Amino acid sequence: MDNGGGASLTTSSSDIQTISAAVSPKPNTELKKLLTFKVYKRRWFVLLVLCLLNCSNATIWLTFAPVADQSAHYLKVTLEEINWLSLVYMVVAIPLSFGTTWMLDTLGLRITLIVGSWLNMFGAMLRFFGTLPPDRYGVDYNIVMTGQTFGALAQPLIIFTPTKLAALWFPDHQRATANMIASMSNPLGVLLANIISPLIVKTPEQIPALMMSYAIPACLICFLATVGILSSAPPTPPSASAESSGSEPFVQGIKLLLKNKPYLVLLVCFGSGIAVFTCFSTLLEQILCVQGYNNDFAGLCGALFIVFGIIGAGAVGLYVDKTKKFIEALKINISLCAVACIAFSVVSLMREQKAAVAAVCSLFGFFGFSIYPVAMELSVECSYPVGEATSAGLIFISGQIQSVLYIIVLQALTKRLTDSPLSTCGDAVLSWKVSNMVMAGLCSLFACGLVIFFHTRYRRLEAEENATYGTRQRKSSATAASADRGASVDCGASVNS
């Protein structure tokens, strides 16, 4: 009995040592890694600077859209030239988008944000000087356009940064929140532009005051970025992924995406959706003023479009995060978005229907913006393992290219009206009836394309599930092996007894 008991005890100790070695081969190394992760309070300051910069750049982008007719009168140009003050953002961003990922990875987050803040500030100041009264320097549309171009140069450096900042500065459980806050600051800037511009500009002579109201925050934000952001990353990484993260190389990722049919459908159709939203934001005031709606009401409709859009994006984002029903949510919301766009093309031709116009703009924003987080997730799911920056960047470029084409086409389809007694558009009164119908048709077309042709596996989720299943299988095998060894030991003990 003693020998048997001793043999049994010795064998059990050996088993414990073997299992411990298998489970934790290098405990000191792993413990050291865990102790090296650290978060810093100044990560919130870096996030604040990015949010302010993103918001400021968006306000500069759409400064003139809510007050297009007053701007055209003050700068002595046509409405088409005023629209180009917004379109230049899309034209400039297209070639620069390819280099933004390289700049973030090579030069770092700090240099990228500082360069973006200086370009944003310089553009805002140039616009102010270009709109000074004639007794000072003289109004000059070309100087204003140059300022807009500098703001456009800053846009890709700013709008591609949230994901990088969240990965470098925030721990695992805060990355999604940081990314969402930084990304939503851009539509917030669009909202502010739709409110502030009509609020300040009651007459064309108030355009310089509007330029100053946007230039002062740009200067303050540039100061905060230059002085306050001291490094691209914290001294100690907040997570393992921040310490070592990787994805497919840019060129190889592009090649994989061009062979991916589901991604190409998403690239074209969702890019078209981005273009329709850009057209709506840019041309809303010009469409509504023909039927007698003033700039304040147009600004209100733009604000409702953004506010309900953010609400919709948050609600649908939370839903798909829990249920993982990305495709169902995308197809339902894109269909409802097309219906809302068709409704807008109808009610925008009606006079004295403020409640209907405001309601349709709210619904259009609610269903339209809700597509964005879902489509971004699907772009990763259908293109995995291509990096997120590459897949999202190409969709952004697609949206910019189509935005330029759509706005040019929609402007070309307008007709000058000889008589419009209720118009608040000033001298140039254009009929947007055909353009609205075309915009609704384009929205319906890309909605049908997504509903009919977009089908994909959730490749990233499948990879994570396979990894989890493999881990569980290994654990089950280890448990079974341990049980077998225990059974052998018990048998040995019984025989010795």
Automatic annotation (TrEMBL):
Which Pfam families does the entry link to?
MFS_1
* Topology in the lipid bilayer: Multi-pass membrane protein
GO MF annotation terms: transmembrane transporter activity
Compartments in which it is found: Membrane
Using the UniProt record, give the first listed, main subcellular location.
membrane
UniProt cross-references to CDD domains, sorted A to Z: MFS_MFSD7 (cd17399)
Recorded GO CC terms: membrane
Per UniProt, the keywords (alphabetical) are: Membrane, Transmembrane, Transmembrane helix
Record carries keyword Membrane = yes
Region Disordered: start-end pairs: 472-497
Q: What is this protein called?
A: Major facilitator superfamily domain-containing protein 7
